[in-house]
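re: that chain from earlier
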Amino acid sequence: MDKNIILLVEDNPDDVELTRRALRKNNLINEIIVAQNGAEALDYLFGTGAYTDRDINTTPTLVLLDLKLPKIDGLEVLRRIRADERTKYLSVVILTSSSEEQDIISSYDLGANSYVRKPVDFNQFTEAVRQLGLYWMVLNEIPRR
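^ sequence. v structure.
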């Protein structure tokens, strides 16, 4: 496991850039891998599709997962992450604009570690990402495989 990788699964380019900027500003990570849809995220995690040459022994420390994604939605991505022995302990934080109660319940039912609604305000969004990065990248401990 590489302590320096975040997999950001997000289809909105503005949110991708805001997240990158907030993490960089707080010197929290060395590398962000961006998947623009659920299928791309699964390909990255499991070394399939465009990522067949990727070393799947190098896993992200954190997955920031949007729910409303093209191709495969975030809940299905989460379901597949938790169903596989190689990825079931990954830290997965749902980072979404949805405040629907059913999305929150489904996320936790499927094993999300946290559910964070994206603040609309830029400064609040930056602060939320900073706090997420500090906790999940610095403080949180996960089992070693």
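The mean pLDDT is 89.
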